[in-house]
Amino acid sequence: MKKYKPVYVEWWDSSGLAEIGWKHETVLPSSDPVLCVSVGLLYEKTSKAIRLIGGYYSQPSGLIVDCVQDIPLVVIKRLRYLK
Fold first, then answer.
1. Residues 12, 33: contact at Cβ < 8 Å?
2. Is the dihedral of CA 3, 51, 30, 28 positive or negative?
3. Per-residue pLDDT tens over the stretch 34-58
4. Which range of residues forms the domain containing residue 12?
C-alpha cells in the first residue's frame, strides 16, 4: 500500500457568513481573507492544487479515503512536510 506523507498547510480563504437570508450591514464580518490551517495526508499535487485526505484504508476494489480537501496552490501561504 502506498504511504502518503503528512503535511501542515497554511492557506488563505474567503470570509463570510454561513447563515443564509437577509442581514443588516452592521453584522457583516470583515471582507478580509482569513488564514486557515489544515493538517492531512498529501494524496496528490497537481500544477493547480493539492489534495489532502484525513485517512484511508485499502480494499480489493481500491483505496477508501476520508475527509478529502482540495486547496488551490495560489492560496497556499506555507506547506510543510511533517515527520
1. yes
2. negative
3. 999 999 999 999 999 999 999 999 9
4. 6-16+32-81
